[in-house]
Amino acid sequence: MVLMVVEIDGVSLHLAHPDELSVEWVGQDEAMRQLLAAWLVVDPRDTPMSPRLVGKPGVGKTTLAFAAAQRMGRDAYVMQATVDTRPEDLLVQPVIDGPQSLRYVASPLLTAMIRGGVAILDEGNRM
After folding, report:
1. DSSP 3-state percent helix, strand, coil across the chain (nearest 5)
2. pLDDT band at residue 36 under the 50/70/90 scheme
3. SS3 category, 123
4. With contact defined as beta carbons under 8 Å apart, do 40 and 48 qualify?
5. What is the full DSSP assignment across 7-55?
6. What pTM was estimated for this model as a whole?
7. What is the pLDDT of residue 24?
C-alpha cells in the first residue's frame, strides 16, 4: 500500500486511500444522468454541485454515487457518518504516532477535495 502524504504549510498530512468497489450500474439511467449533470464542469471556473441523494435504505444511493464517480474516471472516497461523527472528523484527525509524535490523517472528504476525487458522505443524516 502506497502512503499518500502531502505537505501543507509545513505539516505532513496523510491522505485517505480511495475506496474500491466493483460495481456495474444497471437501470435507472435517468438518476445516473442527473447525477453526472450535477457534477458537470464546462468551464474551469465552474464549481460542481453537491447533490444530496435521498431515498429509502437499500435503493442504491451509495452505489449510484460510486458508479457515477467511476464513469467520470475519478477516485471515490466514502466517509461513513454515524451519530457520533463530529465536525472535526470531516477534516483531520491527529493520531499518536510514537512518543511525543503526532501524525495528521485527512478524512476521506478532505482527501477527495485535495486529490480531485468524489467524496461520498454515506448516511450523512445520522450526524
Report:
1. 30, 25, 50
2. very high
3. coil
4. yes
5. EETTEEEEPPPPB-------S-HHHHHHHHHHT--SSTT----------
6. 0.85
7. 83
